[in-house]
Amino acid sequence: METRNKIALITGGSRGLGRNMALAIARKGIDVVITYHTKKEAADEVIEQIRLMGQSAWAFQLDTSNTKSFGSFVNELTILLEKETNSPNIDFLINNAGTALYAPIADTTEEQVDEVFNIHYKGVFFLTQKMLPFMNDSGGIVNISSGLTRIVMPGSAVYGSLKSAVETLTRYQAKELGSRKIRVNVIAPGAIETDFGGGRVRDNKEINEQIASFTALGRTGLPDDIGKVVAFLCTEDAYWINAQRIEISGGQGI
Ligand code: NDP
Predict the structure, then answer these.
(1) 3, 46, 160, 247: which one has the fewest Cβ atoms less than 10 Å from its Cβ?
(2) Domain residue limits at 47
(3) Ligand 1 atom 39: the closest Cα is on which residue?
(4) Which residues does 20 contact at the CB level (< 8 Å), separation at least 6?
């Protein structure tokens, strides 16, 4: 009997880091489900590339800041997987989707705090909770934090502190899921050239040069610096890495 490929679910896989993770994970022979928020065409292009590699891939629309939609998402996803692979389960969950907020503490509104909380903490917490019954034992979860939990930059108080909460959540998830041999780690990318925050790290020369100047390896990050590390965490070789914060920043702010 043919063995079933492992399956990874990556939120926000249509662009930026999530897209890079999806392609890198597929290169490891793992089938991929990505979610997108608004950019269906970008998601379809990722799916096409993965299928050209010979892996199965599917895309779903999901707003990870809207926990009320998670029930129907998980329902649709598991029905599709059951039909296509004879099991509703996934092996890896990559909680990647997210948006930026740059606002000094004095000017931050309650709505802004709710928005960042919903997408960067509540969404991660409850999507993981909803997926747990559909995760194979011995699988893995990768959460996404940021270098900004260590490096303090004015304007990132809410974002940075909620990413810190995700780092703490990671250790609790690792402890509670250890009995199922599910490993949970969190990566903390430094500033990376994506569309994030209006593409400021990539497109604003002054910001780009400033970040490069305080980075040991002398440049800002690229999506390719990140996806491969997440893909490695989804392999057997990473089986003893658990409950870790792995910073991927080229030595930013050291
Ligand atoms: P991008 O802006 O390039 O991509 C964001 C992705 O998230 C897209 O796929 C987008 O979907 C999706 N998304 C946005 N809002 C929602 C939502 N409400 N519900 C579901 N999906 C959503 O960002 P990055 O790839 O740079 O960032 C990915 C993660 O990495 C985030 O968690 C971010 O905080 C973190 N990070 C980024 C760093 C950076 O410098 N870029 C540094 C450190 C951490 P769609 O295409 O449909 O809009």
Answers:
(1) 3
(2) 7-248
(3) 192
(4) 223, 224, 226, 227
